[in-house]
Design a protein that fits this description.
The chain has 402 residues and is mainly α. It folds into two domains: 309 residues, Rhopdopsin 7-helix transmembrane proteins (Up-down Bundle), CATH 1.20.1070.10; 48 residues, no CATH class. Helices cover 62% and strands 5% of the residues. The strands form two sheets. Strands 1-3-2 form a three-stranded antiparallel sheet. Strands 4-5 form a two-stranded antiparallel sheet. Helix 2 packs parallel to helix 11 and helix 5 runs parallel beside helix 8. It is globular. The N and C termini lie far apart (68 Å). It holds the Pfam family 7tm_1. One of its GO terms (molecular function) is C-C chemokine receptor activity. It comes from Engystomops pustulosus (Tungara frog). It is found in: Membrane.
C-alpha cells in the first residue's frame, strides 16, 4: 500500500480512517507496510496448521485403532473434536495468505463466504464439544457410584451430531453477511452488516455462547469433579494419581482461558465502542491493528493443543502412539540399506556361496547353521584340523572377502 499513517492519529470514526469500512463491518485493519509483522502472523498460522493437521490426524488414527477394544463416550467426543480441529486447520492457509498480503483477500467473494463460514462453524463446534466433554467426565465419575445411567458411546454420537447442528445454526449470520468489500483500494474479507449495532449484537452473542457460558460450564464441571473425588476419597491412597488428575484438570481450564480470553476481550472492547459506551481512540486502533491478529492466532492455536491435552496425556494413547512410532520407524528402516562395514574386520566375516551342506567346514557346534544370509561369522570352535583340511581342498570351493 502507498498510504502511510503517522503515529499521531486523531480519534475518529472507522469510516473516516478507512473509507469503505464502517463500525458495522468486521475486518482486520491493514498494517500498511509492516512486512515483518505480516510475516510473523503468516508464520504463526502456518505452524498452527501443520501441527494441527499432524496432531489431529494421529488422534483420529489412534481412536479408530481402539475400536476393537470398544470406545467410550469420551473417545467419541475426542474423535469429533479432532475431526473438527482437522477441518479447521484447512482454513488456516487462507488466513496465512491473507495476512502476508496485508489482510487483502485475494480469493474472491465465494471463497470468502466459504472460508469464513467454515472457520466460525468449527470454532463453535470446538467449544461445544469441549463443554460436552467436561460435563460427561463429571457425569461418568458421579454415575459410577450411583444407579444413574452413564453416557454411552452411542449417546455420545447423537450428542455430537446435535452440537454440530447447534454450531451450524449459530453460524448462519456469518454465512449470510460474509462478504468482500473494497477498503482503500484493497479487497477485504469481512462481515458486512446492513444496519447500525448489528455487528455488536452478533459479537455479543458470540462472546456469550462461545466463551462465557462454556467457560462457566467447563470450570464448574471440573471443580465438581474434583470435589466429588475428594468427598468419596477416590484415589486417596494414591497421591501421585490424585495430583496428576488435579493438574490435568487445571491445565484444561487454563489452556482454554489463555487461548480464548485475549480474543474475546478485544471483541468485547469493540462491542462497547459500537454501543457507544466507550469512544473510538488511538489505543483501540493500535490494538485492533497490531494486537488483535495475534489474539486470533492464539485462539486458533487451541486447535493444535487439544490433541495433546485430551488425547496424548492419556496413558493408553501414549502407549499406542509409541508403538505406532516404532512400527513406522521399522517400516521405514526396512527400505534403507542394511549392509555392514565388512572391511572393518575382514578376519571375522567371510562371504561364501550357498553350496550344498557338505561343502562347509565341520564345526564342533551342532547348533551352527547357515540360513539365508550369505555373510557368516566363523566360529572359534572350528578346530585346527578342520581348518587345515579345508585349506587343502581344491580351489573349486571358492571363498571371497566382501
Amino acid at each position: 500500500m502507498d498510504l502511510n499513517l503517522t503515529s499521531h492519529l486523531v480519534p475518529v470514526n472507522t469510516t473516516e480512517e478507512a473509507p469503505g469500512l464502517s463500525v458495522d463491518d468486521d475486518a482486520t485493519i491493514p498494517t500498511y507496510g509492516l512486512v515483518s509483522f505480516r510475516i510473523l502472523i503468516s508464520t504463526m498460522y502456518s505452524l498452527v496448521c501443520a501441527v494441527g493437521l499432524l496432531g489431529n490426524f494421529f488422534v483420529m488414527y489412534l481412536i479408530r485403532a481402539k475400536r476393537a477394544t470398544g470406545l467410550t463416550a469420551i473417545d467419541i467426543f475426542v474423535f469429533c473434536l479432532a475431526l473438527s480441529d482437522f477441518q479447521f486447520a484447512f482454513t488456516l492457509p487462507f488466513w496465512a495468505v491473507d495476512a502476508i498480503m496485508d489482510f487483502s483477500w485475494p480469493f474472491g467473494h465465494p471463497m470468502c463466504k466459504i472460508v469464513l463460514t467454515m472457520t466460525v462453524l468449527n470454532v463453535y463446534n470446538n467449544v461445544f464439544l469441549l463443554t460436552a466433554m467436561a460435563v460427561t467426565r463429571y457425569w461418568s465419575v458421579a454415575s459410577a457410584l450411583s444407579l444413574r445411567c452413564r453416557v454411552s458411546a452411542y449417546i455420545a454420537k447423537w450428542i455430537s451430531f446435535a452440537l454440530w447442528l447447534l454450531s451450524l445454526v449459530a453460524t448462519i449470520p456469518t454465512t449470510v453477511f460474509a462478504s468482500t468489500n473494497k477498503v482503500l483500494g484493497d479487497e477485504l474479507c469481512l462481515l458486512k452488516f446492513p444496519g447500525n449495532k448489528w455487528l455488536a449484537t452478533y459479537h455479543l452473542q458470540r462472546v456469550i455462547i462461545a466463551f462465557v457460558i462454556p467457560l462457566v460450564v467447563i470450570s464448574s464441571s471440573y471443580i465438581m469433579l474434583l470435589n466429588f473425588l475428594r468427598q468419596h476419597k477416590v484415589n486417596s491412597n494414591n497421591q501421585h494419581r490424585q495430583s496428576r488428575i488435579t493438574n490435568s484438570i487445571q491445565l484444561v481450564i487454563i489452556v482454554f482461558f489463555v487461548c480464548w480470553f485475549p480474543n474475546h476481550a478485544g471483541i468485547f472492547w469493540g462491542i462497547l465502542m459500537k454501543y457507544e459506551v466507550v469512544q473510538w481512540s488511538d489505543a483501540y486502533y493500535y490494538f485492533h491493528t497490531y494486537v488483535y491478529p495475534i489474539t486470533l492466532c492464539l485462539a486458533h492455536s487451541n486447535s493444535c493443543l487439544n490433541p495433546v491435552i485430551y488425547c496424548l496425556m492419556r496413558k493408553e494413547f501414549r502407549i499406542s502412539l509409541k508403538a505406532l512410532f516404532w512400527e513406522v520407524t521399522s517400516m521405514a528402516g526396512s527400505y534403507l540399506p542394511t549392509g555392514k562395514d565388512k572391511q572393518s574386520n575382514p578376519d571375522q566375516e567371510t562371504s561364501i556361496p550357498l553350496y550344498r551342506k557338505s561343502s562347509y567346514p565341520q564345526t564342533t557346534s551342532k547348533d551352527y547353521a547357515v540360513a539365508t544370509m550369505s555373510t557368516i561369522t566363523l566360529l572359534p570352535e572350528v578346530t585346527t584340523k578342520d581348518q587345515s583340511q579345508h585349506k587343502a581342498e581344491p580351489n573349486g570351493q571358492e571363498t571371497s572377502i566382501d
